[in-house]
Design goal:
Blueprint (H helix, E strand, L loop, with lengths): L6 H39 L19
Length: 64
């Protein structure tokens, strides 16, 4: 049962290997871009605090 791989098998292996590397490269680039977009969106939303409107603060009201 000791058969050696034929040249056609090696050619198919090479084609599949190159295709897998290409798919992995594209998938990694897409996921990186998505992660960067999510991080930038999260950073923009963090410091958005609106100051309280005048007249709505029921804490310490001082009237003279």
């Amino acid at each position: 049962m000791g058969t050696s791989p034929t040249p056609q098998i090696w050619e198919l292996f090479a084609v599949l290997l190159v295709a897998a590397v290409g798919v992995m490269f594209v998938l990694t680039a897409v996921l990186d871009a998505l992660a960067v977009r999510l991080l930038r969106r999260r950073v923009r939303r963090a410091p958005t605090r609106k100051p309280p409107r005048p007249g709505t603060d029921h804490g310490m009201a001082v009237r003279c």
